[in-house]
């Protein structure tokens, strides 16, 4: 077969229709066409056509990944799952993930650091919850542990948990009236547990928090 015509597609500016012997052969993206170096007058074998189609699939996989990444940062697993959902081959997915990782567009370590930073800026939260959520994103455990260590190295988790517990108690008391101490302890423990604080931190908060309330009760 010989390429006799290459023309723009009407609905897709970045794609071309390729004709061989004046019959439509295949539609290709500009990227695939540039990579191939195909020009009018070139001969094209069945093997080369298959190679072009494989290249086009890889280009399409990368384009789909970039669209997915345009909404917010993603982890490698999120991109991999999205491409599998779109039924790209495992080989094209692996090559796309490698390409995006080398270019810095996929970086699980940076994703973990950013996620932790944003979560802590929003409200007090403990390492257990952050670790659980990051693992659900598919980030490797060692990467998660390193990010948490860096984020909490100078972070006063106990102080943040104590402040959050005080605020929670104030809101609970104002909305529900006086609550007896055992019930309040249980509610505060459940609240801090949901926020991802360890039992050691919760116990330490209890010692300070309820020592304050005991002192207030005695003063009254």
Features:
220 residues; mainly alpha; Arc Repressor Mutant, subunit A; 3-stranded antiparallel sheet; rod-shaped
Mean pLDDT, to the nearest integer, reads 86
The DSSP helix count reads 10
Helix-strand category: mainly alpha
Cross-sheet strand order for the largest sheet: 1-2-3
Number of domains: 4
Spans of at least 5 consecutive residues whose pLDDT stays below 50 are 214-220
Beta content comes to 5-15%
Instruction: Kindly state the percentage of residues in helix.
Output: 55-70%
- The tally of beta strands, per DSSP, is 3
Inertia-based shape: rod-shaped
Give the CA-CA distance, first to last residue: 97 Å
Radius of gyration: 29 Å
SSE order: EEEHHHHHHHHHH
The biggest sheet amounts to: 3 strands, antiparallel
Question: How would you describe this protein?
Answer:
There is one protein chain. The chain is 66% helix and 9% strand. The N and C termini lie far apart (97 Å). It has helices spanning 30-36, 46-69, 76-85, 90-102, 108-122, 127-136, 141-152, 157-176, 181-194, 199-219; strands spanning 3-8, 15-20, 23-29. It folds into 4 domains: 1-44; 54-106, Orthogonal Bundle (Arc Repressor Mutant, subunit A); 113-152, no CATH class; 158-219. Helix 5 (108-122) crosses helix 7 (141-152). With 220 residues, the protein is mainly α. The protein has a 3-stranded antiparallel β-sheet. Mean pLDDT is 86; it is low at 214-220. The chain is rod-shaped and about 90 Å long. It has 10 helices and 3 strands, in the order E-E-E-H-H-H-H-H-H-H-H-H-H.
């Amino acid at each position: 077969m010989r390429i006799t015509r290459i023309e723009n597609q009407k609905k897709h500016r970045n794609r071309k229709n390729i004709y061989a012997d004046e019959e439509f052969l295949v539609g290709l993206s500009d990227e695939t066409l540039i990579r191939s170096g195909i020009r009018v007058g070139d001969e094209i074998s069945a093997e080369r056509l298959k190679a072009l189609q494989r290249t086009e699939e890889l280009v399409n996989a990368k384009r789909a990944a970039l669209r997915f990444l345009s909404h917010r940062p993603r982890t490698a697993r999120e991109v991999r799952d999205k491409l599998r959902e779109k039924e790209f081959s495992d080989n094209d997915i692996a090559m796309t993930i490698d390409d995006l990782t080398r270019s810095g567009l996929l970086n699980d370590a940076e994703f973990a650091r950013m996620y932790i930073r944003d979560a802590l800026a929003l409200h007090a939260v403990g390492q257990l919850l952050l670790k659980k959520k990051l693992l659900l994103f598919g980030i490797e455990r060692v990467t998660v542990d390193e990010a948490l260590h860096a984020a909490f190295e100078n972070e006063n988790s106990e102080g943040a948990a104590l402040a959050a517990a005080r605020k929670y108690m104030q809101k609970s008391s104002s909305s529900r009236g006086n609550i007896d101490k055992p019930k309040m302890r249980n509610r505060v423990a459940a609240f801090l547990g949901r926020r991802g604080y360890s039992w050691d931190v919760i116990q330490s908060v209890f010692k300070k928090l309820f020592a304050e309330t005991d002192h207030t009760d005695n003063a009254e």
